[in-house]
Write a structure and sequence with these properties.
There is one protein chain. This protein is about 75% helix and about 0% strand. It is built from 4 helices and no strands. α2 runs antiparallel to α3. It is globular.
Length: about 90
């Protein structure tokens, strides 16, 4: 799902990049990462992924709560490295 969110040009441009830019702004302003906002992007990404590839009836048929939590954690940790290096 993370690979899809980063590589699908429409999803990346409309959802992923704006969320990461917002996360970078929060970090630069000394605030904590808003994991709920990242979770919203992940939920949207999982829905878009399932619809685009016609997988199951929805994300809950494929992704568990643990999968969702792992995806959020992966995004937060990997994007924090980018933000610390001046990305976004």
């Amino acid at each position: 799902a993370v690979v899809f969110m980063r590589n699908d040009p429409v999803f990346y441009r409309k959802k992923y990049f704006p969320a990461m830019a917002s996360m970078a702004d929060r970090v630069r302003n000394g605030k904590d990462i808003d994991r709920d906002a990242i979770g919203s992007v992940v939920d949207s990404g999982m829905n878009t992924y399932c619809k685009k590839f016609k997988l199951a009836k929805g994300p809950s048929d494929i992704f568990t709560a643990e999968d969702r939590a792992a995806i959020i954690e992966k995004i937060c940790s990997e994007e924090m490295m980018q933000i610390e290096c001046g990305g976004y």
